[in-house]
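As noted in the main text, all predictions were made from sequence alone. Below is one such record, for Phosphoinositide phospholipase C.
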Amino acid sequence: MTQPHLSTDANLQSMQVGSIMRKVKSRAWKKQRYFRLQDDCATIWYKSKKAGNAHSTFSISDVEAVREGHQSEVLLSIADEFPPDRCFTLVFRGRRGNLDLVAESAEEAQSWVKGMRKLIENLENMNERERLDQWISDWFKKADKNGDGRMNFKEVQDLLKMMNVDMNEHHALRLFTMADKSQSGTLEDDEFVLFYKMLTQREEVLRIFQDYSSDGQTLSCRDLEEFLREGQLKQDHVQQHSMELIEQYEPSDTAKMRQAMTIDGFQMYLLSPEGSIFNPAMLEQHQDMSQPLSHYFISSSHNTYLMGDQIRGHSSVEAYIRYKHTYTHKHIHISTSQYPVILSIENHCSVEQQGTMAQHLTRILGDKLLRNALEGKGSDLPSPEDLKGKILLKGKKIGGLERSLDGVVEDSLAAEVSDEDDAAEIEEENLHNDSIRRKPKQGLSKELSDCVVYCKSVHFNSFKHSRIHSKFYEISSFAESKAKKHMKDAGAEFVHHNVRQLTRIYPNGIRTDSSNFNPQEMWSAGCQIVALNFQTAGMEMDLNDGLFTQNGCCGYVLKPAFMRSLEKRFDPEHPEIRDGYRPVTLTIKVISGQQLPKVNLKEGSIVDPLVRVEIHGVPKDQARQETRHIDNNGFNPMWHETLTFTIHVPELALVRFVVEDYDKTTKNDFIGQYTLPFSSLQQGYRHIHLLSKDGTSIPPSSLFVHIRIKEGT
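Prediction:
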């Protein structure tokens, strides 16, 4: 379904003719491939010269960004062979590797770079209806085996299986005949779209629509107001809001003129970002960014340079670029976040090498590297707002901030630097791994020390010692097991400590497979820098993504008020003992699912989906409940089941929706998930747009739910 404005673009026309380019995997692996943009302007097709008929494809929607020139490690390694104006990199969503390409000429490279960017931009600007049409059209092409642009009933049946639909043959044939307007016994592209739309008519949405419609045909402004009040549990400005919804989502001009909404407009609204479970206002940056750094949770990765496990993992600059550049799904874009980045230095260098490191840091980072304390910030950490555009170094420091302000410097050998906290903790835990050896203590170079301002690494003694002796700019690091012990023994003191000082938590040394710990436990104690292995997908990264999707994805989330005050006492183990304790009841009606992806690619296999809702928060709030499974229906399963939770500390809770394929003999297969902060939930009828295991969206897979939040239990 090519959009008219795309078909006349010269770059896209050139891409549709195709180009021979070198696909580069390393300095030694550079192979010619023929690349071509398909006529749908949505798919890239490519093959090697030798592979006969074998070819590969990828969708434009899989590509997150295009980098020009030598902007990947691979292309940098061949910079002497090919000039930058012939090189470009396609960066894929999620954790899929880059595609590095060298065109035959600079003009050809430009054609692909500009063309790809136009296609990506076009996709980002599509509305829900256009996305759905595109998705249907993609399926049509997959199933049209002989490529004649038509599908007979047998091909349609095969396609329904591919789409995870187990449909009664008689019902499918009846719809097929109704959609075959030309009465040719086959469906053409547009007829197939009609067939699909009849197939996907949402009975449960229609029922809600009819419950509120006065005439059974449309929702008047007044009907819509009633729906907003009763269905969506909204109180404010409903009259104005109902008019805005008709204006924005109603496709029929006739209905618009009558200030009414048809079922199509109603469904479009429910599928839009406004109808999503995540409150759009919370997606924007809305929090106060002028408080001390210690008052924020800060998105943090551990050993960012590793692409795999901790011992054999390929060490790569690419991992940093990915973290900076993509941080999958709607994640943090450090390249676009204006707030400070904290680099944790793991120092294994001699004094001389440290000096060289300091020179590199100063030269490469320039003015971005914070070298001096800010004026007027004597006794408190500066705020993210104060530190906009700055990079802070966390590491050992000679003397304190006060001494460097006075120009006093100690002898460089007087301050010893160990191999950073991780190695020290590993030794304490007696985890003697061949790959991790402690080196003798080193002196610290003044040059490197001077690069550390507000994040001086210090060894933690006790909370009492910190209360008396610690400085606000000192930061301690704990392995996850140590942090858990402190939380059990002195939870309230840990929270109190984290009001004034930064704390970093990192995975236990035993996690050589790059697995992760549950970050929620650490956030419940007010720990700000909870470092996870971003390269490892799973529940822990889902929680991290869920927390940091709010507040403009800027990497900083303000802690609740009771975790920012030295006067208040909060113990995560006993949440009821605090001022302002107000538990809430969360009621979730899981109504239906839409077009869930197949997980088992075996012929004829259809999923048996169930939904699990998990609450992650303080220990008392940890809970999970699930629906029954539905046999053989990934297309439009209906549950209509209600799950109820009591939440004691809603300010810290995250809600995770997981869809699994039930299997009575083995572990259920993962289908999709979505995680968000409790504080970002929208009440009422909402769609949850599911994400894959690595956090990328899988449209149009969704859940349809009703959410109600009530104070008290």
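The chain has a mean pLDDT of 86. The chain has 23 helices and 29 strands. These features were considered when defining construct boundaries for the mutagenesis experiments described in Section 2.9.
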